[in-house]
Design a protein that fits this description.
Layout lengths: L8 E7 L11 E7 L3 H10 L6 E3 L5 E3 L8 E3 L6 E4 L2 E5 L4 H10 L2 E2 L11 H6 L3 E2 L2 E2 L4 E8 L4 E6 L17 E9 L1 E2 L2 H18 L22 H7 L6 E2 L2 E3 L7 E3 L5 H19 L8 E3 L4 H10 L2
Parallel strand pairs: 2-5, 3-5, 4-18
Antiparallel strand pairs: 1-2, 6-7, 7-13, 8-14, 9-10, 11-12, 11-13, 15-16, 16-17
Helix pairs in contact: 6-7
Length: 309
Amino acid sequence: MVCSQIKIKHYDNFQLTNFNTLRIKSIAKQFWLPDNSGELVSLLKKFKDKNPIVIGNGSNILFSSKGIDEPIIHTGNIKDSLVFGETIDVEAGIKTQTLSKLAYDKGLSGFEFLIGIPASLGGAIYMNAGAHGQTISDCLISAKVYDYKENKTLTLTNEELGFSYRHSILKEKPYVVLSAKFELEKKNKAEIKARMDENLIFRKNRQPNLTLPNAGSVFKNPVDCELSAGALIDKCGLRGFRIGDCEVYQNHCNFIINKGSATSIDYTNIVFEIYTKVKEKFNVELTPEIIYIGKMTKDEKEKWKILKK
């Protein structure tokens, strides 16, 4: 039921299946849908001592099948954008694919890679999303963030965001992205469209689309290793490997798909098995990109402690 005592939309005991790209069934005790950044900030103030969890498109996350006690705040309605010449100022909840199309419409280059990434802008900045030789940090000027522990809004420059491979300072601080400003490059629209189409074809041929539920790339590519995470997994004979309803994708071994009724336990077990096999064969410890959210069984806690060390 929608809570009628407050303005911000709020649901209790909310099913999150349609709010994560892996389509895991999980119940959130509280689910909030702010309509603007002001409402988002008010919720972060309200829940600052309850470890609020802010989500966008729900990729790169694994919700617990046992449920989530922390307040979940969804930014999907916070998606305004302004374009001034070659500068785009955009709110955190916009989908990256929408942002890629917006840039194309304006004849701006720099977001072609986003067309194949099913994320929100906030999540893309959080993990410095990238593909096809481009990353979100390449053309980012600054980001406006809210520090919910100190109750203040900050504008951080590209340098202050501490970007590196699949990393930003947002992973270390109690910061939530509100909006960001980018400087793109004016180019011929046909050239931009051609690169977007190439990226989509690559994804179609190599990676599962969301008709096959998945959370995106499972592991970061290891540093100082000639082989990618997917190649390492493949050489361990794990193509098509399955535990419960989780399966290593046949066309790209760094993706795990939900065959129907996968649970967070299935996903944890298959990720841990992959990690173990790669470590045994190559002495390489893969690091998951996936973020676990919610209650854990004792076995899950032990395995994720090892996976995230």
